[in-house]
Write a structure and sequence with these properties.
Blueprint: H1 8-16, E1 20-26, E2 31-36, E3 42-48, H2 51-63
Antiparallel strand pairs: 1-2, 2-3
């Protein structure tokens, strides 16, 4: 896992370049995000404790259901 926290801007940029990401785990206090190549291969995993990003991830998970 990369120690550098992920940001919404990074997730949006990741998608712009054709890759995808998924929230691997979300709690009220933290979230873990898998960043994947366009082939689906896991590139890296990032962590966040940012409440705004956690809410963003929850909303995206709901939108994709």
């Amino acid at each position: 896992m990369n120690d550098k926290p992920v940001t919404i801007e990074q997730l949006e940029r990741w998608e712009t370049y054709g890759a995808h990401w998924q929230a691997a785990q979300i709690t009220n206090e933290s979230a873990t995000v898998d960043l994947c190549a366009c082939t689906g291969e896991l590139v890296e995993t990032r962590h966040t404790i940012n409440p705004h990003l956690i809410e963003y991830l929850r909303n995206r998970r709901t939108d994709q259901s």
